[in-house]
Write a structure and sequence with these properties.
By secondary structure, the chain is α/β, with parallel strands linked by helices. Helix content is about 50%, strand content about 10%. The structure holds iron/sulfur cluster (SF4). Iron/sulfur cluster (SF4) binds next to α5 and α8.
């Protein structure tokens, strides 16, 4: 990936350029797509929605956008009304569904992030299929992708990660991750530049998760260097 975008542009321009670049290089957005954006109220998915509504000219395809917030037992932090207003300003309709994550646990099963995220992911795919969306856009960025790779490798011994584009064999939907070329710090700066909401996850299960441990180890390992992280990303893409 070229670093030329990082020299003189502000963060919003960088976000739009790198979202366009990822979309064109991985064919993430195609003519006639109906794209459902998973939004949490946090900075990543808000910046994702903003970028997808901003890059229409550069992508040169006609596509529809909508956003969905999946509430669960642990979602108490999201400012949904403000989020709805913000999205509708960008012509993105907003939907909200609730997934009873705890009630779905079987007797003797314990709550954990894996269970929660698979339940919410299932609900997201189900909603997309029932409402004729052919793509689901997720707000994962470069740091998430690297963390997930190291988590999978160290927890389960598998070399698997988060593809930029994933077409399911079982379902008629494709997952896309248009923020894959962006570091979290660039997304934070873009959110700050635009005054976007930055609702943080307050779920108690997230605080001590394995992800937090891996995140710290990666920060030590890379020294926070963007170019080191991008080289790791490029290495993962060539596995
Ligand atoms: S931190 Fe874990 S349990 Fe909490 S909302 Fe996120 S995925 Fe679910």
């Amino acid at each position: 990936m070229s670093n030329r975008f990082f020299k003189k542009n502000n963060a919003t321009t960088i976000v739009n350029k790198l979202v366009t670049k990822a979309s064109l290089e991985h064919n993430l957005i195609e003519e006639g797509d109906k794209i459902l954006i998973a939004v949490s109220g946090g900075k990543d998915s808000t910046v994702l929605a903003y970028a997808l509504s901003s890059v229409r000219k550069a992508i040169k395809a006609k596509y529809e956008l909508a956003a969905i917030h999946i509430s669960s037992d642990f979602c108490s932090c999201c400012k949904k009304l403000s989020l709805k207003t913000l999205l509708e300003n960008w012509d993105i309709p907003f939907y909200d569904i609730f997934v009873p994550v705890i009630a779905r646990l079987k007797p003797n099963e314990k709550m954990n992030c894996y269970w929660c995220s698979t339940q919410r992911r299932g609900a997201l795919i189900d909603y997309a299929m029932k409402n004729n969306f052919n793509k689901i856009a997720l707000g994962h960025h470069l740091d998430d992708i690297i963390e997930t790779f190291f988590m999978n490798m160290t927890s389960s011994g598998r070399l698997t990660g988060m593809p930029v584009r994933l077409t399911y064999k079982k379902y008629p939907v494709t997952l896309i991750r248009p923020l894959s070329y962006l570091e979290e710090r660039q997304i934070i700066t873009c959110a700050d530049e635009n005054g976007f909401l930055k609702a943080a996850c307050t779920c108690p299960y997230g605080r001590n998760s394995n992800r937090m441990v891996i995140r710290k180890r990666i920060a030590d390992f890379t020294g926070g260097s963007g170019s080191v992280k991008r080289r790791i990303y490029n290495a993962l893409a060539s596995i």
